[in-house]
Write a structure and sequence with these properties.
- InterPro entries: GH.
- Residues 667-690 are annotated as: Disordered.
- By secondary structure, the chain is an alpha+beta fold.
- The relative contact order is 0.09.
- The strands form six sheets. Strands 6-7-8-9-15-13-12-11 form an eight-stranded antiparallel β-sheet, with no helix packed on it.
- A hairpin with a 4-residue loop joins strand 32 and strand 33 (587-592).
- The protein is globular.
Length: 690
């Protein structure tokens, strides 16, 4: 039987994607869940303090700031939220195990702290909120106005209802972000980890993962052969498991579904089944794109990344749990463009499954398409599966440690999704365990004696209580290295705060005549490039490419500058700018957009949002040191304003290959958008590489 649970307020959540504002409603998620709770909330003199399982929030009313401290593993302050003015008229309106809530009359604001250590601040009037970093920025990831900053011991996350807001984020600055919130906007600050890590379970539980294009229900003899390989079975064959996996979760063969359940339970094993909020298309504008067969298969359908389908999806999986009674659910993709929907999905799913139901998320795209994620959503999940198709990142300790494992951040059991390769190697097993991540056991791996031996000798043999001490020693060593590395970066940070010392460019592109180089122009843009009046004039469709590719061999490039005028060109991701490509494949790209904003692409992240005039000339500059870099703009080519800071991780230290100048796709490749858009004109004045 399913547990009886209180459902979130239909008024707040039904019929639309959850929003930051709807989650402020006291009737939404009022209970403590999954071992995370508010332990106390009290006012004493000029202070208001809320203590949760994972954090302590101390609100200094006269100063107007909130000190956010970690409690699990390493007790310490991690961030400070500053309003820059006193908070008056404080009233503690709710205090219970699920959440505490306070209101303020001046400035008008509401603050809610949930048991999972998520602070939610809603502005009742325009507010400027500054966030100070109190930990080392050993690793960080961003998606629009959402950021996660971590060191080896813990982390904090920032998430904002105003996704396009320019928050001036810089993980290495003392004040990492500044949010100018309009009335009604909501800012979240999550302290990490929100829950303790379940070490015994991480050493005991192992998932046998089955996927097939032919059979969704393995035979009993196959199920019995898995008995010694794990204690949980994942049936992930979406098309073969369900009749219409994009529209409803009804077994193709109900009698075999029941047989699998009986057999596995008879073996003392549990099983979880495939579902997907992202690919659940019923009732959405994408419903006609649903597929239910591999016949003439041309690729997976598009999904729903923002959560409008959450009520329909929850109704569908409620039926799965009641009628087909698996031990839990596997979600293939979530609402990775909407933090509020992601959080609501986690809490509603946990309420449905109860405390003992198994919940696994595959979220290689967790929040955006980079490595940002929301630990306070992950905390309601048992297993987090990440890394599908990212084999090139498996050698990166940072990728395994901070994104896949999540140890001391979300404290789920982080699992590497290495389902596309031949199987784990001894080297990969060592890296995964050192990061405190885990493997699932793919059923097809069991057909290889070599892979079985790697799993036995290099992986399972090390899943002992001694692993914890080994992991902690590694974390301590890397934390000490991070302290030294940050001290070493200080000189680079200071140098980037000053004007560059460079004088003459290594490559100067001028337009007295058409420069040497290759003209790369879409077939949709005949005669797109011409030199006129000392500028490169580009006449092309908005969302198509038209640029010059100029060879450039520089062994230690440190920056690029371009002068552009957007004009009537309608390009956004295909706006005018420059892209410097390196021999190692890395690229540094900056461009203007027709929506009067800037865009830059650096390793691992796309930056977007700062205002940029479209009718006037503007100078765009990117420059960098051995690891750090900045994007800047100027209206006169002399006085530059910093737009963004970024970390290229050493990717820009190698030799350059070519400079692209003109209308560029986000990756510099010669491809157009499916909708070319109207024809317009833009100009490039000059471009320099230093």
């Amino acid at each position: 039987m399913l547990p009886i649970v209180r459902r979130p307020s239909a008024r707040a959540l039904a019929g639309a994607a959850p929003t930051f504002q709807s989650l402020m409603d006291p009737s939404v998620f009022p209970e403590a869940q999954h071992g995370m709770r508010v332990e106390s909330a009290r006012r004493a003199g000029g202070r208001l303090e809320v203590v949760t399982t994972g954090a302590r929030f101390t609100i200094d009313l006269p100063r107007g700031d909130v000190t956010c401290s970690q409690r699990i593993g390493h007790a310490r302050p991690v961030a400070r939220l500053r309003l820059g003015r006193a908070l008056s008229g404080a009233a503690l309106t709710h205090q219970g195990p699920g959440f505490a809530r306070a209101t303020f009359s001046a400035p008008r604001a509401t603050l809610r702290v949930n048991g999972d250590s998520l602070l939610m601040l809603q502005a009742g009037e325009p507010l400027t909120v500054s966030i100070d970093r109190l930990i080392l920025p050993a690793w960080n990831a961003s998606y629009r106005a959402n950021h996660l900053v971590a060191d080896e011991l813990g982390a904090f996350g920032l998430y904002c209802s105003e996704a396009g807001l320019d928050d001036q984020f810089d993980a290495f600055a003392d004040t990492v972000a500044r949010y100018r919130l309009p009335a009604g906007a909501v800012l979240w600050l999550g302290v990490c980890p929100p829950k303790p890590y379940d070490w015994p379970r991480s050493l005991k539980d192992n998932v046998v993962w089955h996927w097939s294009r032919e059979a969704g229900y393995p035979d009993d003899d196959v199920l019995r052969s898995w008995k010694g390989q794990g204690d949980i079975v994942l049936l992930q064959s979406e098309v073969m498991l369900w009749k219409d996996w994009n529209l409803a979760f009804e077994p193709r063969r109900p009698e075999d579904f029941a047989r699998v359940r009986r057999t596995l339970h008879g073996l003392g094993m549990r099983f979880i089944v495939y579902t997907s909020p992202y690919y659940f298309l019923k009732g959405t504008r994408l419903e006609s794109r649903a597929l239910n067969s591999f016949e003439n298969f041309k690729g997976w359908p598009p999904g729903t990344p923002t959560g409008e389908n959450i009520d329909l999806f929850m109704a569908a999986i409620t039926r799965v749990m009641r009628e087909y009674r698996p031990d839990g659910l596997y979600f293939d993709g979530q609402y990775h463009e909407n933090p509020a929907a992601l959080y609501a999905l986690a809490r509603r799913s946990r309420a449905l499954l109860g405390e003992k139901g198994i919940l696994e998320w595959h979220s290689t795209m967790a929040l955006g398409e980079g490595q940002c994620y929301l630990p306070q959503a992950d905390a309601y999940v048992d297993f987090i599966l990440r890394g599908e198709g990212k084999q090139g990142s498996y050698a990166s300790r940072d990728y395994l440690r901070f994104f896949v494992s999540g140890y001391n951040i979300n404290n789920c059991i982080g699992v590497l999704c290495n389902n596309l390769g031949a199987g784990p190697t001894p080297e990969l097993a060592r890296g995964v365990l050192a990061a405190n991540a885990r493997f699932h056991t793919l059923a097809r791996w069991l057909n290889s004696s070599g892979t079985r031996e790697v799993l036995r000798k290099d992986y399972r043999a090390r899943l002992t209580p001694g692993l914890r001490a080994e992991v902690e020693r590694g974390i301590g060593a890397h934390q000490a290295q991070a302290v030294k590395a940050l001290a070493g970066r200080r000189a680079e940070i200071d140098a980037l705060a000053r004007e560059p010392a460079w004088t003459r460019p290594a490559l100067s592109v001028r337009f007295d005549a058409m420069p040497r180089g290759e003209q790369r122009v879409s077939k949709q843009n005949p005669d797109a490039l011409r030199v006129e009046g000392g500028t490169l004039r580009i006449h092309a469709h908005a969302h198509t490419f038209a640029h010059l590719a100029v060879p450039v061999r520089v062994k230690a490039a440190r920056g690029v500058v371009v002068r552009v005028r957007q004009g009537s060109d309608g390009g956004q991701a295909w706006g005018p700018g420059v892209l410097l490509r390196f021999a190692n494949g890395a690229m540094a790209r900056v461009s203007s957009r027709s929506d009067a904003t800037l865009m830059a692409d650096v390793p691992g992240v796309q930056l977007h949002g700062r205002p940029c005039p479209t009718g006037d000339w503007v100078w765009l500059r990117m420059r960098w040191g051995s690891r750090r870099g900045v994007v800047e703009q100027s209206t006169d080519g002399k006085r530059y304003e910093r737009v963004w800071a970024f970390d290229h991780g050493g990717a820009y230290n190698g030799e350059t290959k070519e400079l692209l100048v003109g209308k560029l796709s986000w990756d510099g490749e010669p491809h157009d958008h499916s909708e070319p858009g109207p024809v317009g004109d833009c100009e490039i004045g000059e471009a320099d590489v230093y």
